[in-house]
Amino acid sequence: MTYEEYPYAIGVVFSEPVWGLSYHQRFGDNALQGTLGISYYPNPTYQAQLAYSIAVDYQRTIFGADFNRFLGAQLYLDAYLAHTGETAYNWETYTYDPFEAQIVAGVGFGVEAIFFQYFSVPVEFIYSFSYSPTEDSFPSNVSVDLVPRIGLRFRFK
Fold first, then answer.
1. Strand pairing of 100-115 and 95-96?
2. Which member of 7, 32, 67, 71 has the lowest number of beta carbons within 10 Å of its beta carbon?
3. Prior bond to 139 cis, omega within 30?
């Protein structure tokens, strides 16, 4: 299988609230992925002055196949734990809101399409459970949501 032959990957993950550069490594049918994203804009024309996310994913392959030399795929379960934070800009008061942090856990599944053995596009559907320790009252500090995630990876040995 292509995903076993090329067990390492670097890439990028796009989702809410976890986004950033990623490193992916397989161990047989299991894989770990780390994601780190950070942005800092001192100019208030952007949504947030500071935003970051740090995540660790565990993935377990359920099914995989190589359809030919140029196309392969795998179906996998995904669980992750993340920490995110931001200082958002408030357009009504023209000031920055207080720092908001979240602890996020998610579970779901993903499908990774592998092209030409080296390039892949993982698409995941994750139930995300988040807790905001900077919010002071329940239930406004807890949320549950179905979150789509997409990524781009370059696989290598």
1. unpaired
2. 67
3. yes
